[in-house]
Amino acid sequence: MLRSVNVGNRSLSDYHSIISRELMSEIRELAEKLKGKRVCHISATSFGGGVAEIMYCLVPLMNDVGLEADWLVMFGQDEFFNVTKAMHNTLQGDPREITVDEKAIYERYNVLNAGGLTGEYDYVIIHDPQPAAMKAHSQLNGDAKWIWRCHIDVSTPNPDVLDWVMSYVEDYDLSVFHMAEYIPPGNRAPDPVIMPPAIDALAPKNMALSAEDAEYIVNQFGLDTEKPMLLQVSRFDPWKDPLGVIDAYRIVKKKYPDVQLALIGSMATDDPEGVEYYQRTVDHAAGDTDVYILSNLDNVGGVEVNAFQTHADVVLQKSIKEGFGLTVTESLWKGRPTVAGNVGGIPLQILDGETGYLVSSSEEAAARILDILDDPEAAKAMARRGKQHVRHDFLTPRLLRDWLGIFDRLS
Ligand code: UDP
After folding, report:
1. Tens digit of pLDDT for each residue in 198-220?
2. For labelling alongside 282, which of 10, 43, 235, 324 has CA 20 to 30 A away?
3. H helix runs in 116-200, sequence order
4. What does the alpha-carbon distance between residue 259 and residue 246 come to, in Å, rounded to a whole number?
5. Where would I find the H helices in 116-260?
6. Domain containing 25: what range?
7. pLDDT tens for each residue of 280-330
8. Region of residue 53 (phi > 0: left; psi between -120 and 50: alpha; otherwise: beta)
């Protein structure tokens, strides 16, 4: 049945030196009006991926400001997750169909989970398509407002699958998307609101690390912290273009022979595509001893990612296709000069030449990396503006404010 996630504690006051006083008081004012409102988040998993990362911070912050927020995770088995994975892919453009049998499996698990949803709530937030049919089967009191929070780009879907999913969603009170471009075509998303994601500045992955501590950690992975280091943190996936990153590094190496490249990517042993692309990346590096390809299998977790990002001379995110690009947010937050693909949510974060550089090819990436290495002072100033941009727009308290604003509007 539905499982409640223990999210621990967070305190908004811990952010007081990080966010603006205006934002803090806006949150306090809205929270005062909404005191005691009961919020239920429902998602498919509490582990891995951007949704879970956000919830572990957002849910305790909602509680801290006076709401009563729960986070429930759906019960599901392989047969259900196979269908929802196919839904995820088709909603992002995979032309395959969802069969009648698959739809029945999806429906069955949603009925089961909806049956387990009891209690009294003012707002129910359904994350992504997996639990979208729960509203249709819910026995909850009629007062609850239902919100569909979509974390994926559904602007170019397989139309039949979208049509089917929207038949559940159009009955919601409101829907939320990362960017205006991600709203599904056809005007069926109810009262769509734009709310980009955010990172938690206080999580181990993003908290302030001293340059010495970061060096100490990076050094343990065999890199020479006296030499320049380029970094990309991303899944081993063609859209993240790790091979293109290696090509850009090779161009840079002609001018800076001691430059090193670290490619960090998480890999699940049950993700054959990731394992295969990891191998292609290793092959492309062709035994170059200045290229370090690391993953969670080498014990690289949140703190280590933080250390590499904090230490890097240049952070790359050479994506060809991207959702929002949280790694870019993380890099900018650490005040690193960042060079990233001009796709997805990246241009919201990188204003070209002002908070980082946007690129569309390995050659362009190399040229921008060279600009940064040639003039570190100018790069530092650019990176500082990037950090300010994230501070203002992409930290969790802003996300909390946006949610409170929505609750207020719906009351
Ligand atoms: N990430 C990580 N370790 C890795 C690779 C990625 O912790 O080895 C994290 C990364 O720090 C970021 C998230 O996974 O928080 C990736 O989010 P993003 O939006 O950049 O890309 P996605 O993988 O969702 O397409």
Report:
1. 999 999 999 999 999 999 999 99
2. 324
3. 134-137, 159-169
4. 12
5. 134-137, 159-169, 211-220, 242-255
6. 3-198+396-410
7. 999 999 999 999 999 888 899 999 999 999 999 999 999 998 889 999 999
8. alpha
Q: Residue 93: left if φ>0, alpha if ψ -120 to 50, beta else—which one?
A: left
Whether residues 323 and 260 share a domain: the answer is: yes
Nearest in space to 397 (alpha carbons), one of 22, 8, 61, 30: 61
- Do residue 194 and residue 220 come from a single domain? no
Could you give the dihedral angle defined by the CA atoms of residues 243, 245, 250 and 253, in that order, rounded to the nearest 10 degrees? Answer: -160
Cα distance between residue 166 and residue 79, in whole Å = 22
**Domains: count for the chain:** 2
- Convert the pLDDT of each residue in 13-40 to its tens digit: 999 999 999 999 999 999 999 999 999 9
SS3 313: coil
Contact call for residues 74 and 38 (beta carbons, < 8 A): no
Rounded CA separation 199/201 (Å): 6
Q: Are 356 and 382 in contact (CB under 8 A)?
A: yes
Residues in contact with ligand 1 by the CB-under-6-Å rule are: 50, 53, 233-235, 264-266, 295-296, 300, 305, 323-327, 330
Query: Comparing C-alpha atoms, which of 159, 148, 146, 55 is closest to residue 97?
Result: 159
Nearest-atom number in ligand 1 for the CA of 239 is 25
Which tokens hold the place of 268?
A: 């699940």
Are both 162 and 257 inside the same structural domain? no
Backbone φ and ψ of 43, nearest 5°: -140, 175
Residues 35 and 183 in one domain: yes
The two three-digit tokens of residue 197, written as one number: 């994601």
Does the global pTM surpass 0.70?
A: yes
Residue of 127, 266, 281, 334 best suited for mutating to test ligand 1, as the one with most atoms within 8 Å of CB: 266
pLDDT the model gives residue 296: 83
Same domain flag for 15 and 134: yes
Average pLDDT, the chain: 95
Say which residue the tokens 């207020």 belong to: 408
3-class secondary structure, 124: strand
Selection from 243, 106, 253, 219 nearest residue 165 by Cα? 106
What pLDDT does 262 receive?
A: 98
Could you tell me the sign of the dihedral formed by the alpha carbons of 360, 365, 367, 368, in that order? positive
Rounded distance, CA 99 to CA 83, Å?
9
Nearest in space to 121 (alpha carbons), one of 199, 201, 38, 10: 38
Tokens of 143: 């007062």
| Residue 324 CA, closest ligand 1 atom number | 19
